[in-house]
Design brief:
mainly alpha, two-stranded antiparallel ribbon, globular
Length: 484
C-alpha cells in the first residue's frame, strides 16, 4: 500500500504539514515557529555542525567495522589453507587493530545516539515510532559483533579451528548488518514511506514498509561497497608504504594482496552501484539530482555537467564541461528523457546547490581514480601472477590510500546536504527538528577537541601494531590450537 505522503512526494511537491503542532497547518501558516528559528540561526548551524562532525568522525570507524573483520578472516583462512605463518601473524595483528577501532567506533556511535535525542528531539519524537525497528536491530547486530569479536580475540587457544574461523565470519557479517540497518533508516529519511500524515502526526504506520522504503537496496549496496573500497585502499596504502621501505617483507606483501584485492574489486563494482543510485535518485529525489548536477532548467536531452560552479542566483553552472544529453542518458538510460530542473521546485526547498554539486564531483572523481587504479592492479597481477610490487605502482597505492575515505565522506555529504532543508524529506524541516536549547557552539568546540584527541590516540596505537610487524613468533602455530 502506497502511503499518502509518498504519493504527494511523487507529484513533486513536498508535504507542508507542521509535524509538531496540534493541527495540520502548512509551514507558511506557522509564523511563530519560523520567527523562532530564524532568530537562532547560529544555534541551528551549531547543532548541524556538531552532529555532522560526530558523523564524519564515526563514519570512518563504521566503515572499518564493516571491512576489517573480512580482512582478518581472509588472512586466517589463507593461513589454514597454506600454513604460511605470515598469514597467522597478519590475522592476529589485524584482529587487534579491529578491536582498537571497534572500541573507538562504539564510543563515537554512543555519542551519536545521545545527540539524536539531545539535538534533534522533534525528529526522534516524530520518526521513532516509524523507523525504530532498524535502529533496534542495529543494536542487536552491534552486540553480536562485540560478542563474536571477543571469541575471535581470545579463542585462539580455547576453541577449535572451524569455530574460531566461524566466529570471525560472524564478526564480518554483524558489521555489515549494522551498516545495513543504519542505512535503511537513512534511506527512509530520503524517501519516507510506511505511514500517513494526519493533523501533523504519523498514523497507519507500517513498520516493514517504512524499513524498506523506495531506493533502500541501491543505497545499502552503495554504502557497503564504499566501506570496502575506503578501508581496502587505506590498509593497502599503509602496507604499500612499508613495502617500499622493505621490499622483501612477506608480511606487508600478504597484507597488500588481501586489502587491495577486496578494495579493488569493490572499486570496480562501485560505478555499477552508482548507476543504480543515479536512476533511483532521478525517480524519487529529482530536486537532489538537479542540485548535484547543477541543473536548473527542465530539459529534454539534458546535458551532464562535469566540474563547474553552480550559481543559484543566475541559474547557470559556469566553467562546467557539458556532455550533450549525458544527464538524461545516465539518469534514465534514454538520451531524450526529460530531466526536471531546480526551477520546477519551490526555491525554499532547494539544497545548497554549490556544496552538493562540489561534493558530488569529488565523490565521482575520486571513485573514478580508485577504479582506474584497481583496473591497473588487476592487469599487473594477471601478467605477473602475483600482487604487483613495482615501486611506482606502490607509490600510486600510497597516494590513493586516503582517497577512499575522502570519497566516502563526500558521498555522505551529498546524501545529507542534498536532503536539506529537510531532515525527513518533504515532511520535517531541519529547523523544526532541532532542540530549543541554546548556546550549542561551546559543546561543538569541545567535541571537536575530543575527536582530535581520539584520532591521535588511534593513530599511535595502530602505528605500533603495523610499524613493528615482523616474522611470526616461533610458537604461533602451537598457540593457534590447531594445525592448518
Amino acid at each position: 500500500m502506497t502511503t499518502r505522503i509518498v504519493r504527494g512526494l511523487a507529484r513533486g511537491g513536498p508535504s507542508r504539514a507542521c509535524t509538531t503542532g496540534e493541527g495540520a497547518r502548512p509551514h507558511d501558516a506557522c509564523p511563530s515557529r519560523t520567527r523562532r528559528y530564524n532568530g537562532r540561526v547560529t544555534d541551528l548551524a551549531a547543532a548541524r555542525w556538531l552532529f555532522g562532525t560526530s558523523l564524519a568522525f564515526h563514519i570512518v570507524f563504521a566503515a572499518v567495522g564493516v571491512a576489517m573483520p573480512l580482512f582478518m578472516v581472509l588472512a586466517e583462512w589463507r593461513w589454514r589453507r597454506t600454513g604460511a605463518e605470515v598469514h597467522l601473524d597478519l590475522a592476529r595483528r589485524w584482529a587487534k587493530g579491529t578491536a582498537i577501532l571497534f572500541a573507538v567506533g562504539a564510543v563515537s556511535g554512543t555519542v551519536i545516539s545521545f545527540e539524536l535525542g539531545l539535538l534533534w528531539p522533534r525528529f526522534m519524537a516524530f520518526a521513532g515510532p516509524i523507523i525504530g525497528m532498524p535502529f533496534s536491530l542495529e543494536g542487536f547486530a552491534f552486540f553480536a559483533e562485540a560478542i563474536f569479536l571477543g571469541i575471535y580475540l581470545y579463542g585462539w587457544e580455547r576453541v577449535g579451528p572451524r569455530l574460531h574461523l566461524a566466529s570471525g565470519v560472524a564478526v564480518a557479517a554483524s558489521g555489515a548488518l549494522s551498516a545495513f540497518f543504519v542505512t535503511l533508516a537513512n534511506a527512509w529519511m530520503n524517501s519516507p514511506a510506511g505511514f500517513e500524515l494526519v493533523h501533523g502526526r504519523a498514523t497507519s504506520v507500517e513498520p516493514l514498509q517504512a524499513m524498506f522504503p523506495p531506493g533502500w537496496a541501491h543505497e545499502v549496496i552503495h554504502v557497503l561497497l564504499s566501506s570496502y573500497v575506503a578501508t581496502g585502499f587505506a590498509v593497502a596504502g599503509i602496507h604499500a608504504f612499508f613495502l617500499r621501505r622493505t621490499p622483501g617483507s612477506a608480511f606487508h606483501r600478504a597484507a597488500l594482496a588481501i586489502a587491495l584485492g577486496v578494495g579493488g574489486a569493490a572499486a570496480l563494482l562501485q560505478p555499477l552501484s552508482g548507476d543504480l543510485s543515479a536512476r533511483q535518485v532521478a525517480e524519487t529525489q529529482p530536486v537532489k539530482l538537479a542540485a548535484l548536477e547543477g541543473h536548473f532548467e527542465t530539459r529534454r536531452g539534458a546535458p551532464l555537467h562535469i566540474g563547474g560552479l553552480p550559481d543559484a542566483e543566475r541559474r547557470t553552472t559556469p566553467f562546467a564541461l557539458e556532455i550533450p544529453r549525458g544527464l538524461s542518458l545516465l539518469a534514465f538510460h534514454d538520451p531524450d528523457a526529460v530531466v526536471k530542473g531546480l526551477d520546477d521546485f519551490p526555491r525554499d526547498t532547494w539544497p545548497d546547490t554549490l556544496l552538493v554539486h562540489l561534493a558530488f564531483q569529488v565523490m565521482v572523481g575520486l571513485g573514478s581514480i580508485l577504479a582506474a587504479l584497481s583496473l591497473a592492479a588487476a592487469v599487473l597481477a594477471w601478467r605477473g601472477r602475483a600482487v604487483p610490487t613495482q615501486r611506482r605502482f606502490l607509490g600510486a597505492v600510497v597516494a590513493a590510500g586516503p582517497l577512499g575515505f575522502l570519497a566516502l565522506e563526500a558521498g555522505w555529504l551529498v546524501t545529507e546536504w542534498g536532503r536539506q532543508p529537510f531532515t525527513v524529506r518533504g515532511v520535517l524541516r531541519t529547523a523544526d527538528a532541532v532542540t530549543p536549547v541554546r548556546h550549542l557552539a561551546l559543546p561543538f568546540l569541545g567535541f571537536v577537541a575530543l575527536y582530535l584527541f581520539l584520532a591521535v590516540m588511534v593513530a599511535l596505537l595502530l602505528w605500533r601494531q603495523i610499524a613493528h610487524a615482523g616474522p611470526a613468533p616461533a610458537h604461533a602455530a602451537a598457540a593457534a590450537g590447531a594445525s592448518p
